[in-house]
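quick one, 182 residues, struct below
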Amino acid sequence: MVWRTLLSVYYLAGIFVTLVPLYWWQVDVGGILVVKDSPFQISLHFLGAQLEITNLVNAALTAFRVYLLIILAYGFYSTIIGRRFLNSTLFAVTVLYMIEPALFFVIVEVLKALGQLPADYEPIFIGTTSLVVTQPDAVAVLRVTFEPTEFYWVALAVAVLYPIARLSLRLNERREKGTTKT
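---
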């Protein structure tokens, strides 16, 4: 059964991705704010110093990591014994991580609309752009960089296994229904 193999690989690879303590994205706003994060940990540096809130956020993210490990381990166990257990949490988290640059753009636009940030910003998905902040007597140009790490691409490759396994399972179920009707 192909679906069983695909789901087993997805769950095992998902456990690996969840256990490895590497960041998925790095955002650098002119060296003033540097954020390295994944769904399981975060590092926030403002003017070179780590923010204290990082520890609290990391505690919550560690709890999420443990939750996901339990789900993935149960999914692997269920698949091994032949039960059909599907959980898309890792898939959803990985795919939704692509919105991080869009989220930054939304924050800049909201601050501009509120009159709190007189800035101009060209949105990008991956790479470097400029955030130009203008004041009556000065202009500041900050380089904004969005970089997924190599490990993010590994996590995304694992996530892609989920819809493939789900499709394989659905096709298998249709085949089983077709053979029981005749």
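The chain is about 55% helix and 25% strand.
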